[in-house]
Structures are given as structure tokens and as C-alpha cells.
Amino acid sequence: MEKYPGKKNVAVFISGRGSNLKSLIKYSKRNSLIKIILVISNNPDAKGLKYASKSKIKNYGIKFTKNSNFENNSLKLLKKYNIDMLCLAGFMKVLSGNFIKKFSKPILNIHPSLLPKYKGLNTHERAIGNRDSFTGASVHKVTEKLDSGKVILQKKVKISKSDNVRSLKKKVLKIEHEIYPKAIDKFLTNL
Ligand code: GRF
Fold first, then answer.
1. How large a percentage of the chain has pLDDT more than 70?
2. Which terminus, N or C, of the chain has the lesser number of Cβ atoms within 10 Å?
């Protein structure tokens, strides 16, 4: 049963700062298709958890000592809060196939590259190292294979000669904040 009629109950997994979480919370407060009711971090000190508390959203830090502990505890919470969809936002751990199967609802992720280019870490270093003219961000469905699920939305940004990893990260992050809410809208409208 939906807690907020007409809206999907959404959980967000984070690992740190939580700027994407912030943009999703802002979006969920507008006339959106979702209600964020749960935030979980594998890092109990994640700054994003404090923001969730400030926004009066239930949140939990579950120390990632063992993958199975984190996953089993999270699955219990996802069930308890009747979650319809999970959004990974700066969540730096890889979820197991077992978790994805057991949750059985959609899981989305935001990745700082134009997938299928640069799966995994250090995307900006690689784009600059390869002298790419463009990079960007992608929102995709999460499957067992890292950063390989269907792309829902992506947006490009130009890499200028003066860009370094730091400046590029900043540019791409701005795009991440813009496309994650749009991708959720697109995904839920096409269900
Ligand atoms: C983002 O660039 C995300 O794409 C990457 O880690 C960063 C997390 O930022 N995987 P934040 O925690 O959302 O501020």
C-alpha cells in the first residue's frame, strides 16, 4: 500500500556528502511522483544523513562491515517502510545480485560519465586523460553488472582545455542534480 496515495515510496542510499540526495528531496517536495521516506548510508558519519534528519526523513547508518549484514538490514528496512523504488545517489558500494533479486523493485543509479563510457571509479580522470571533448552524467537502472543497466537519461557537458578533475567534477555534479529528478519522472511515467 502506498503511504502517500499517488506517489511512489522511495528510499535513497548514500555514502557521503549527499548533494544528489538534496536535489532529490527538493524535487520530491515539488509536485513530483515520489515521496522520499527513507535514507540509508553505509557510512554512519555521512553528511547526507544529517540533511535527511533536518528534512524529517527517517534515516539509518548501517556500517558496512560485511556486505551481507548491510544488505540484510537494509532489506528489512525497505520492507518495513513499504518502499516501491530505490535510488542510489553517491552510494559507493556495489549491491549484490541477491539483494537486487530480493528487493525485486526498480533500483536507479546516477553515474558521473556518459555511459557506457567509463564504468566504475575515476571517471573524470579518465575523460581528461583521454582528451575527450565531452563528458556528462547518466541515470540508469541497476542490474547485477556494474553501471551496465539500461540508461534512462543522460546529459553532456563540454570539457574545456582549462578543465581539471576538480572543475569537471563540479560541472558534472550540477548536471547530476538536474537530470536525476527528470530521469525519475521519465522512468515512472513510462512504467
Ligand atoms: C556523485 O558525483 C556521484 O555521481 C558519484 O559520487 C558523487 C556523490 O556526490 N558516484 P553526492 O554524495 O551526491 O554529493
1. 97
2. N
